[in-house]
Specification:
Elements: H1 8-16, H2 43-60, E1 66-72, E2 79-88, E3 92-98, E4 104-110, E5 116-122, H3 133-142
Length: about 150
C-alpha cells in the first residue's frame, strides 16, 4: 500500500492524461516526470509540458533510422524536424528546427491554435544515433534552472 500524500496539483496532473489505443502493448506517455509548479501553470507551460511527453513517447517507438518531426494544421506551414521547443508565458509555444529541405525554421504559435501531428522522418545526417529531442526536453522538466536559455 502506498500512503504518499499528493498535492492537488500532482493529483490534477496525474488525472488529466488519459489515452486508449487499439494496440494493448502501445507505449503511453508517463506524466510523472512533470515539474511541480511553484504556482499555477500558464496555458503555455501546460501545452509545453504535455507536448514533451507526447514527443518523448513518440520517439520511444522510432527505430534508429528516424527522428521526430511535426506537421502543423491550418495553413501551408509544412513539416519541421524538431530541434528545439519553448514557451513564452502566458500563451505562446515556439518550435525550432529545419524543414525537409534543410531550411532553418521557427514556428511561433498561440496555445489556442495548437494542432500538432508528430511524424517520423529519416535521419538527415549519417550518424550512429538519431537526435532525440524529446528526452532533452523532458530533462528540462525536472531541472530547476531557468528555461529561458
Amino acid at each position: 500500500m502506498n500512503d504518499a500524500i499528493k498535492t492537488s496539483a500532482e493529483a490534477l496532473e496525474s488525472a488529466v492524461l488519459h489515452e486508449v489505443h487499439t494496440d494493448p502493448d502501445a507505449v503511453k506517455p508517463d506524466a510523472s516526470a512533470l515539474k511541480k509548479p511553484d504556482g499555477p501553470k500558464s496555458p503555455a507551460r501546460w501545452a509545453y509540458e504535455r507536448l514533451i511527453l507526447y514527443i518523448q513517447n513518440f520517439e520511444k517507438q522510432l527505430d534508429n533510422e528516424h527522428e521526430v518531426a511535426m506537421g502543423f494544421a491550418g495553413g501551408d506551414t509544412g513539416v519541421i524536424r524538431i530541434e528545439g521547443m519553448g514557451f513564452f508565458d502566458p500563451d505562446i509555444i515556439t518550435f525550432y528546427g529545419t524543414d525537409p529541405a534543410g531550411t532553418k525554421t521557427q514556428l511561433v504559435q498561440h496555445v489556442s491554435q495548437l494542432s500538432v501531428m508528430l511524424r517520423a522522418l529519416p535521419k538527415q545526417v549519417a550518424a550512429a544515433e538519431p537526435n532525440r529531442i524529446g528526452f532533452r526536453l523532458a530533462a528540462d522538466l525536472t531541472d530547476d534552472t531557468d528555461v529561458t536559455t
